[in-house]
Backbone:
């Protein structure tokens, strides 16, 4: 056997296989084609050379362009995008950079509109399709009002070589000229204004019907009707922006804001104005309209979300009228709860009674009352008092990424009792006394919420004549306030129309075995108008914890004065 044959046999018998080691090198450019391109056409450019399969970036004339395909170690295809400039091609990999010896020429065509295909008119803020030649090179579309020297840029939504779609910007007049901006080398050029085609602009200016209300009530949702109301961008009361709850072309609903200088009662007046066309224009609805501040808080058009809702905004305070982001729970909503609620070990060494305060009196008073909705067992949704459960709060997350113990509202997967103590009593429409109270809320014929209008009778166990009893609960589920809801099912825009009496207790709380009329600090009402029930599967329970709850809230401004109760 020859030495060469023996070596081959020895290699064949080895357990390891040897391959030639690749030694990386900088790319080499030998040629490219074509030598000239039109800007904006994304022309493929084939580069030939060596060590091209490891190229990571490419430029033409110093501007980065796209790598379409690494064909092989000797061939690469680039796209001469509209960002390319005349100059050398450069290719870079981890080892180095290569530059072509010859330069590429980038020619800049002038975009041309086919004016015969322009529509006669277009809605302001609507979409306009421009057809022509070399439309891919257009950088800006300018709409200049008739008689003006300067215009505004429209938003380009899509474009290719043959057509471009742009959103029409605000235009002051009913006619505008259209010019196109494009690159010519490193300069931006605009087509001549005196040669620009003209188009009619349809300005859908809002028109209001006669007002259906004679006064504004702070906190109330108020309705404007008319035409083109969807163009309104702001409603202002005495210059203070109001929250727009909903709007369509025919109707706009807004919540009347509290204005600095308003006094409680009916002796206030304010201007009412609308801003429209992206706040470029405004109109006075009334120069002076009566405004009333009622003796209780009104918060209407509120939406909060369950612990798996589309938005991580679950906590509402009837004291402030604010819906809080879940991320604010530890710092703003209930900042003292974690002092005593760090882990299950706390509850092993302390005797804890739910619906009682776990913090000192000063910290209890410093925490605004709040409540939340969460999916409960057997496919129900419940409104909850923070102090009603060991485990509810840890089911909420600071964002819609529902994972990670640190992302849970308390900061970990541990038991946690919230601070404020509340109870909720469903007002049954089958009971005459309860129905009368609920109707005052639904029809907003309430004039006050205080000890005179809704007296507490500790001996009888009633508030405003309504017996609390065992029906006043720290967690009240849909079994009570939405009895026709089919448990564990999705149901968008479910009409609940449920009115709840809300009881907020002082630092002494409201243990289950006590008289539930004792220790009441303030009361209010929650009118749950509708719910977008959304089930999030969880074992066999299928709770609707992804739900959005829509409601109005009415809240006592001052603590009960028991000396006034007869």
Residues:
């Amino acid at each position: 056997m020859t030495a060469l044959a023996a070596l081959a046999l020895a290699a064949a018998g080895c357990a390891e296989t040897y391959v030639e080691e690749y030694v990386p090198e900088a790319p080499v450019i030998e040629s490219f084609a074509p030598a000239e391109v039109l800007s904006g056409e994304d022309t493929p450019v084939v580069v030939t050379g060596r060590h091209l399969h490891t190229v990571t970036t490419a430029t033409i004339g110093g501007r980065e362009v796209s790598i379409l395909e690494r064909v092989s170690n000797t061939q690469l295809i680039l796209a001469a995008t509209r960002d390319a400039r005349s100059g050398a091609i450069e290719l870079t990999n981890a080892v180095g950079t290569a530059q072509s010896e010859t330069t590429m020429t980038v020619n800049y065509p002038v975009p041309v509109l086919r004016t015969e295909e322009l529509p006669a008119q277009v809605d302001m803020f609507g979409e306009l399709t421009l057809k022509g030649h070399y439309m891919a090179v257009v950088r800006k579309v300018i709409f200049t009002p008739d008689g003006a020297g300067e215009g505004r840029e429209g938003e380009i939504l899509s474009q290719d070589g043959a057509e471009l779609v742009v959103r029409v910007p605000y235009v002051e007049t009913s006619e505008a000229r259209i010019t196109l901006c494009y690159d010519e080398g490193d300069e931006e050029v605009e087509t001549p204004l005196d040669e620009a085609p003209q188009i009619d602009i349809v300005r859908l200016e809002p028109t209001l019907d006669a007002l259906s209300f004679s006064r504004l009530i702070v906190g109330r949702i108020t309705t404007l009707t008319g035409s083109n109301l969807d163009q309104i961008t702001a409603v202002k009361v005495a210059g203070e922006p109001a929250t727009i709850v909903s709007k369509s072309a025919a109707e706009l609903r807004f919540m009347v804001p509290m204005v600095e200088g308003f006094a409680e009662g009916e002796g206030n007046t304010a201007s009412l104005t609308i801003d429209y066309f992206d706040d470029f224009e405004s109109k006075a609805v009334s120069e002076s309209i009566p405004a009333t501040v009622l003796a209780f808080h009104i918060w209407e058009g509120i939406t909060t979300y369950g612990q798996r809702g589309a938005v991580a905004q679950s906590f509402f305070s009837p004291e402030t009228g604010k819906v809080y982001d879940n991320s604010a729970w530890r710092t703003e909503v209930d900042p003292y709860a974690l002092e005593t609620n760090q882990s299950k070990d706390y509850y092993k060494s302390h005797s804890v009674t739910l619906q009682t305060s776990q913090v000192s009196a000063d910290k209890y008073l410093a925490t605004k009352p709040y409540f939340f909705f969460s999916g409960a067992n057997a496919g129900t949704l419940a409104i909850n008092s923070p102090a009603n459960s060991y485990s509810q709060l840890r089911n909420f997350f600071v964002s819609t990424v529902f994972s990670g113990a640190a992302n849970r509202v308390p900061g970990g997967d541990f038991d946690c009792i919230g601070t404020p103590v509340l109870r909720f009593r469903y007002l049954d429409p089958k009971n005459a006394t309860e129905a009368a109270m609920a109707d005052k809320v639904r029809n907003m014929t309430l004039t006050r919420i205080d000890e005179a209008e809704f007296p507490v009778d500790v001996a009888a166990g009633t508030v405003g004549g309504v017996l609390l009893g065992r029906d006043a609960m720290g967690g009240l589920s849909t079994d009570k306030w939405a009895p026709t809801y089919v448990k564990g099912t999705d149901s968008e825009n479910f009409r609940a129309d449920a009115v709840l009496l809300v009881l907020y207790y002082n630092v002494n709380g409201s243990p289950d075995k006590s008289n539930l009329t004792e220790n009441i600090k303030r009361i209010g009402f929650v009118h749950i108008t509708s719910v977008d029930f959304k089930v999030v599967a969880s074992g066999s329970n299928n709770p609707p914890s992804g739900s959005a709850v829509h409601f109005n809230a009415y809240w006592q401004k001052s603590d009960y004065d028991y000396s006034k109760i007869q």
Notes: Residues 202 and 398 are 45 Å apart (CA to CA). The first helix runs from residue 3 to 12.
